[in-house]
Write a structure and sequence with these properties.
Layout lengths: L1 H4 L3 H13 L3 H10 L3 H11 L2
Length: 50
């Protein structure tokens, strides 16, 4: 049950590395796949990178 409730850090790091390796990186991923605007992304950065 624990396996289904958690996330292996290595899997997250691999996913982020794969996103970062693509043109535009995380910003493009968030815009195209999550529908976030540049303003939305900036707001998330301000909130999450305090």
């Amino acid at each position: 049950m624990r396996v289904f409730q958690g996330v292996d850090r290595a899997y997250l790091e691999a996913a982020f590395a794969a996103i970062d390796a693509r043109p535009g990186g995380m910003d493009r991923f968030m815009a195209e796949n999550l529908g976030l605007s540049a303003g939305d992304i900036a707001t998330l950065r301000r909130r999450d990178l305090r």
